[in-house]
Design goal:
615 residues; alpha/beta; Spore Coat Polysaccharide Biosynthesis Protein SpsA, Chain A; eight-stranded mixed beta sheet; two-stranded antiparallel sheet; 21 helices; binds uridine-5'-diphosphate-glucose; binds manganese (II) ion; cell wall biogenesis/degradation; membrane; transferase
Length: 615
Amino acid sequence: MVHMDKGGTEEDEALALFETKEARFRGAYRLFASTIVVGICLIWVYRLSHLPRSAHDQGRWAWIGLFLADVCFSLYWIFTQSARCNVVYRYPFKDRLSHRYEEKLPGVDILVCTADPKMEPPTMVINTVLSAMSYNYPPEKLSVYLSDDGGSELTFYALLEASAFSKHWIPFCKKFRVEPMSPAAYFSKHSAASNSQHDLSINIGPEWLAVKKLYEEMKNRIDSIVETGMIPKKIRDQHKGFSEWNSNATKQDHQSIVQIMIDGRDKNAVDIDGGRLPMVVYMAREKRPQWPHNFKAGALNALLRVSAKISNAPFILNLDCDMYANDADAVREALCFFMDEGKGKEIAFVQHPQNYDNITKNDIYSTSSSVANKFELPGIGGYEAALYCGTVCFHRRESLCGKVCSKDYRGEWNSTEGEKKSDKTVNELEEASKVLANCSHEKDTQWGKKMGLIYGCPVEDIVTGLTIQCRGWKSLYYNPDKKAFLGVAPATLDTALIQQKRWSEGMFQIFFSKYCPFIYGRGKIKLGAQMGYCMYLLWAPISLPALYYVIVPPLCLLRGIPLFPQVYLSLPFYSYARDICILCLKCMSKKQVRVNRFRDICAIYASPLMPLRLT
Ligand SMILES: O=c1ccn([C@@H]2O[C@H](COP(=O)(O)OP(=O)(O)O[C@H]3O[C@H](CO)[C@@H](O)[C@H](O)[C@H]3O)[C@@H](O)[C@H]2O)c(=O)[nH]1
Ligand SMILES: [Mn+2]
């Protein structure tokens, strides 16, 4: 096969670059699930056979309603089982990759999005950028792009500072294998290390302190300038890029700006130890009030075009600005999947879980989504149709840009492709890239329809993943023990609710759009995967039967209308009762308020208010 021509012995080549293992106790779980199926059937039989016959019977409508709620719950439960019975875990072998391909590693473009310097402080954004620059990967093959939808010179200034600081930070990371590679996260985690008892400071004391000081000075400079909201003239004069901001540029109305902050092709762009630096590019796409900007999807599509012009790496890592890199080898691990000689060429993307480093002990809003991360998403990944979740995802550029996976696709790329094109000057590249980031560039093209991220849905990521899979590609879910990325989860009730509402509403829209997995995905992705998608897409409406179950039976109880069988027959109903009891106990207990069903509760309250904007 394509990449096997050189390097490695024959024996070595026979070994796959990753393996897949079924979750332990999968058989036992399936057995357990089948007992529930029996229970569900018994409930249906009971409901149908005991239906009050006479129309005058008081409880007739309550009974029918309860039967419909039971049907909804049963179907939804079956959807969840499609994923939960199919959990697999993936294990890449990064040593085999290095052994076989170290000299021929492909280029990787890292695309970071930010949208607002107030909501997403520039210091946080540059910490993400710095972490992405510090991967254990050949820097001449790495490019980091920042899309700034806020079009803010404050963010630009912060990136300028970060580019200078990276000359100290990157060699420091490599020398001492620093993780996490975000300076803010690293120094806050290891602040105890400045006490001399800790090994770290004994071994790397002076350098540690020097880098920490540099970081803090930089952070203070940025924070104080962000606070005033103005860039002093002295700093403006230091970089030509500031001239792009004229007095009438606003967040919603400005021309495209593309600035190459570090030219990774330049052999003289080196850190303090003389090591090469990765390419760093700032982009603010053109925004005009009369053009729809399509939010993050629009930003990523512009970034896809600009990065294709500048470095055109065959693989892409997509990060939100609040998700920093925690594992220096994550790029290599992801490449194991794409470069595996047997299965790699069909794989379009590899999704990591979204983990957070600000989860409180009790995680009262259940933002860590541990059931989804550990069972549901790996379960859908078991059908090789892992969901694309918008961030911490590695993509193959071709599949993201609309290519269809055909039988004769060989997954080839030029190993020089990762080497940045070197014939153009920085200025020429910037000017050519600006055109690609203009609003009018997408007019009458397939961008947002078949190419890049799909427009018109609040959860553009899920739809985009589905369309990629329906073009014949596979996708994997990879949840390593050592978390590869860490981010910031919503920490207050209102932000958590807004996020949950946007997700549930957006996903429900997909169900009624032409992208409904049962129709759009028919014959293209496995039935189990279609059901797995619908588990999420139907998450909002399943709150209605839940609401019914919460309200109607207690009312009937008060009025003496029987809805449930005598105790000896009620075993199948046990699980409802158990769930409701657990939920109540958890809500009441002050000590351990972990409401794992927080999402369900939100959905209950959000959905009756939810305007159904169907596309
Ligand atoms: O016009 C916009 C709006 C947002 N963003 C960026 O998009 C990312 C995600 O937006 P955010 O408001 O933080 O949404 P979340 O609810 O946190 O996002 C989750 O849900 C989204 C929709 O499913 C996914 O795209 C995200 O990756 C996922 O983290 C952030 O980096 C933003 O800077 C833009 O670049 N341009
Ligand atoms: Mn976010």
